[in-house]
Amino acid sequence: MDDAKAFEQFKECAVKVLGVSPDKVVMEANFAEDLDADSLDIVELVMELEDSFSIKVEESELEGVDTVGGAFNLVKGKIA
Amino acid sequence: MQESRCVFITGGATGIGAATSEVLLERGYKVAVTYRSRHSSENLTKYGDRFMEVSCDVSDSDSIDSAIDQVEAKFGKIEILIVNAGITEDTLLLRMSHDAWDSVIETNLTGAFRLTKKVLPSMVRARFGRIVFVSSVIAGMGGPGQANYAASKAGLSGFARSLAREVASRNITANVIAPGAVATAMTANLSQKRMDEMTSSIPMQRVAEPSDISGAIAFLVSEEAAYITGVILPVDGGLSMGF
Question: Which residue in A21, A47, B237, B243 has its CB near the most CB atoms, within 10 A?
Answer without folding.
Answer: B237
